[in-house]
Amino acid sequence: CPDLDLDGFTTSEGDCDDNNADVHPGADEICNGVDDDCDGTTDEPVLLEGLVAYYPFSGNTNDESGLGNHAVSFNATLTTDRYGNANNAYVFNGSNSWIEAPDNVSFHTSSFSVGAWVSYDAIPSSIQVLLAKSFLSTSWESNGIFYLYGAVNTIVSDGTNGFYFPATAPAAGDWFHILEVFDNETDLLKI
Question: In whole angstroms, what is the distance from residue 165 CA to residue 152 CA?
């Protein structure tokens, strides 16, 4: 049998989708509705400890962590994801659309990770928030990843001081993963 997707595995060697090089025995299982590692189970739980929300955008903005932190779409429209699956991603109009998770005590933590797969059609002409965690206390505090001036940037603010970390942005049309890991106890930020 030939290896149609050139991933090093044929169907006789256990490749359950020989048209997708990302799917084969031993591949990392990710939450995408696909049996990536060909073990007969789709989307095995990878991270549960400390998980407070999981939004796979499977036709809605429901939290699939089981904790009920459902988000709400404001003028965002369902679209095709990076794998070509219909209604598994959202497109934003660049001016008045977003997805917001209502405040919940489970989000009140000084250390967190937040990530998303992102693609954009054109270079934005204004600041665009890609991911943000913010809340009101005695002052406005925010941690987030923004698209600003032709680059993807991380901005961290405690309401008084702000820190800005620029990074080169991928080309328009490319999908890229953004992840922010913040540990307030050690003042560690990883992007």
Answer: 9
Strand partners of residue 79: 89
Tokens of 91: 């497109």
**Hey, which residues does 151 pair with through a beta bridge?**
148, 168
Is pLDDT above 80 for 68?
yes
CA–CA dist 7, 19 (Å, integer) = 9
> Given CA atoms 86, 179, 177, 95 in this order, what sign does their dihedral have?
positive
Burial environment of residue 186 by CB neighbours within 10 A (0 to 12, 13 to 18, 19 or more):
exposed
Residue 138 has a pLDDT of: 39
CA distance 36 to 10: 14
Q: What is the pLDDT of residue 19?
A: 92
Q: C-alpha angle 181/183/48, rounded to 5°?
A: 60
Paired residues of 154 in beta bridges: 145, 165
For residue 191, is pLDDT > 50? no
CA-to-CA dists, residue 146 to 87, 108, 140, 143, angstroms: 24, 21, 17, 10
